[in-house]
Design goal:
The chain is of the alpha/beta class. It has helices at residues 2-11, 25-35, 49-57, 72-81, 93-102, 113-121, 132-135, 137-145, 164-168, 184-188, 192-212, and strands at residues 13-17, 39-43, 63-67, 85-87, 106-107, 109-110, 126-129, 152-155, 176-178. It has a single domain (2-207), classed as Alpha-Beta Barrel (TIM Barrel). It binds 3-phosphoglyceric acid. 3-phosphoglyceric acid binds at residues 16, 43, 67-68, 130, 156-159, 177-180.
Amino acid sequence: MSNVLEVVAAGRLMPVVVVRDPAHAEPLGAALLAGGLRTAEVTFRTDAAAEAIRRLAQDERLVVGAGTVLTREQVDQAVAAGARYVVTPGFSVKVVEHCAQVGVPVFPGVATATEVQMALDAGLSTVKFFPAEQLGGVAMLKALTAPYGKVRFIPTGGISAANLADYLALPAVYAAGGSWMVAPDLLAAGAFDEIERLTADAVALALAAASAA
Ligand code: 3PG
């Protein structure tokens, strides 16, 4: 667990990736590393997800996560493929309990205080806040974090270079997630230079946010 937490916390960015062609995995991993990131959340929204995780995870420098995990079976597939953490869009007791049994860290999605408390009850202290912008963005997150001093959040949904710094300025924000660095159209077009550029831009913003803190 600690290595996963360290790698994600160091970059404070979690690119959300939808891979349709497993052959994109290796150049994607190279672009992320060249841009300065060591992690990606590969979503189970395509049939290529497990194979993409398997290929990305071959590179020991990368800590690969599985996203949009909705079932226990997907947890098993993700872990077998080499996923080191699991992200879910909402809070599923079944999925969270299964992750604990299997021993893989899970960042479940929450949108309300009730769901934060479900995560606390499950022994978790880091959750995804989804969909961040649509729920009220930084103002909502600030209000939601106030009662829970020890909970860390990964806001995702509607985040881009334009508002990233506002989220990262909140001490309770562990990392910010989103698809803007690896936009699906860029990946489909094989625009790995552009993915590297957007990743490097985000890394620079995250570093600036850290030094401003
Ligand atoms: C997710 O799966 O976490 C979101 O779809 C990512 O949201 P974004 O596309 O608005 O960044």
